[in-house]
Design a protein that fits this description.
Layout (H helix, E strand, L loop, with lengths): L8 H23 L4 H36 L3 H21 L3 H24 L5 H17 L6 H14 L5 H37 L1
Length: 207
C-alpha cells in the first residue's frame, strides 16, 4: 500500500454519495419547516438514506474486522485498515442515536488509538497514512467527541511532518502537502470556532 489518503476509493465513493444526500435532505427539512407534507417526504427520504449508509458501513466494517485487519502483516497495512475502521465507525456515529451510539463511538476511538500507537512506532511523521490518520482522527475528536483539546494530536502531526518535508521525494512531497494543507485548514477553522465560543461565553458572563 503506497499512499495514504488515496483511501479506499470504491468504498468511500458510495459512502460519500450517501452522506452528501443526507446533508441535502437535512437542509430541505429545515427549509420546509411549516410545510408538513414536504417535511414528511424529506424525513422519510432521510431515514432511507441513513439505512443505506448504515448498511454500507456495516458491510465495510465486517470486511475489515473479519479479513483485512487480521491478515495485515505489515505496520503500514495495519494502520491503514485500523484508520479505515475508525473512519467507518465515525460515519456510523453520525447517523445513529440513543444507546447504540456510545458503543459505536468507543469502537471508533479504539481503532484510531490503536492505529496511532502503531504509526508512532513504525512510521515516519511524513508518511501519508500517518498524516491521514492524524487528519481523520482529529475530525472524530472535534465533531463526534466535541473534544477540541485533542486537536493537539493534529497540531503535533503537522509540526513533525513540516520539520521533515525537505527530505522527501517529489511524489511523496505532493502526497503530503495535500494532507498537510487539509490539516492546516481544519486547525485554523476549529481554532477560530473555539475562540469565538470563548468570546461569546465571556460576553455572556458580563451580562
Amino acid at each position: 500500500m503506497k499512499s495514504g489518503d488515496r483511501d479506499h476509493p470504491v468504498m468511500d465513493k458510495n459512502e460519500l454519495v450517501e452522506k452528501a444526500k443526507l446533508r441535502v435532505v437535512s437542509s430541505i427539512e429545515q427549509k420546509t419547516e411549516g410545510a408538513e407534507r414536504k417535511q414528511q417526504v424529506a424525513r422519510e427520504y432521510r431515514e432511507k438514506i441513513q439505512t443505506q449508509l448504515r448498511d454500507i458501513c456495516n458491510d465495510v466494517l465486517s470486511l475489515l474486522e473479519k479479513f483485512l485487519i487480521p491478515s495485515a502483516s505489515q505496520a503500514e497495512s495495519k494502520v491503514f485498515y485500523l484508520k479505515m475502521k475508525g473512519d467507518y465507525y465515525r460515519y456510523l456515529a453520525e447517523v445513529v442515536a440513543g444507546d447504540d451510539k456510545k458503543g459505536i463511538v468507543d469502537q471508533s476511538q479504539q481503532a484510531y488509538q490503536e492505529a496511532f500507537e502503531i504509526s508512532k512506532k513504525e512510521m515516519q511523521p511524513t508518511h501519508p497514512i500517518r498524516l491521514g490518520l492524524a487528519l481523520y482522527s482529529s475530525v472524530f475528536y472535534y465533531e463526534i467527541l466535541n473534544s477540541p483539546g485533542k486537536l493537539s494530536l493534529a497540531k503535533t502531526a503537522f509540526d513533525e511532518a513540516i520539520a521533515e518535508l525537505d527530505i522527501l521525494s517529489e511524489e511523496s512531497y505532493k502526497d503530503n502537502t495535500l494532507i498537510i494543507q487539509l490539516l492546516t485548514d481544519n486547525l485554523t477553522l476549529w481554532t477560530s470556532y473555539s475562540q469565538g465560543d470563548k468570546a461569546e461565553a465571556g460576553e455572556g458572563g458580563e451580562n
